[in-house]
Design brief:
- The chain has twelve helices and twelve strands.
- It is α/β, with parallel strands linked by helices.
- The protein has a single domain, classed as Inosine-uridine Nucleoside N-ribohydrolase, Chain A (Alpha-Beta Complex), CATH 3.90.245.10.
- The strands form three sheets. Strands 3-2-1-4-5-6-12-9 form an eight-stranded mixed sheet, sandwiched between helices. It has a two-stranded antiparallel ribbon with strand order 7-8.
- The longest helix has 21 residues.
- The structure holds beta-D-ribofuranose (BDR) and calcium ion (CA).
Amino acid sequence: MSTSPIPFILDCDPGHDDALAIMLATASPEVELLGVTTVAGNTLMENATRNALIVLDMVNRPDIPVHSGSARPLVRELRTAASMHGDGGLDGPVPAAPSRSANSTDALGFIENILSSATQPVTLVATGPLTNMAKVVTDLGHLHHMIKELVFMGGAIGLGNWTPAAEFNILVDPEAADIVMNSNLTKTMIGLEVTHEAWLDDSHANELRGTGACGDFVAELLDHFVGFHQDRFGWQGAPIHDAVTIAHLIDPTLVTTIFTNVTIETESELTVGRTVVDVYSVTEKPANTHVGTHIDRDRFVTLLMSRLATLS
Ligand code: BDR
Ligand code: CA
């Protein structure tokens, strides 16, 4: 039985794994990428926007609109992940300059237009800090009924990856994450428990290398990203964090979730950005988020690699 593709907007900060999320989405008939909005996070907003345009050129989809959004977190100074992704956000490949500019600098206006004109609720996927998504919560309340759900990569039940307590996307803009978590949107959190299981290594880079322009591009992205994780953490491979959000849309049986309360720490210097997940329901706080706990890695890798192969 064929079903119509899930329409969604991707809010991202490319970023190696954001780039792979875009590529997986454009290679997958189960989902329809209506547009890309960008946010400052891994790199400055101009770089994130440029990188999104480069990736869409690479997959030959110049028809997908790109709108840039928040250039800084709601209240804090921006901290980037240049040590992981490079100063430009996408170290490794040396692609041609993008063939076009962003459609606008008004990501929120774009999201508003899509939601207002949609004939069915639209999914939002966020793979960077939640700054733009917080603005959707505060400024687009009249359109929340047109948001099917928000799936975001961010947070962790346990340890963080940027401080011992916090994962990068939530750490960069904890006030935004707090607004999102307190909203009535239906939310799915794809945190580090899930994404650290979703890794690729050198063998995957080598499998795609030489298979065409996209294959070479992915291989060079992985050379950098896997190499960073090998050097920095001593891991065999690199978690492809952001692509898991798209894989979850494509096949909701891949990720196991629990429905519980998630609260964001915004005050403590030591643990700011921590996603406090009430796994054992020890508080009276209402469940507000479907939290990923595990992914079937073999099926994830098969899905991702087979779809990337179709792009070459
Ligand atoms: C998240 O942080 C970024 O560096 C990645 O793109 C991903 O979205 C993982 O913590
Ligand atoms: Ca990201």
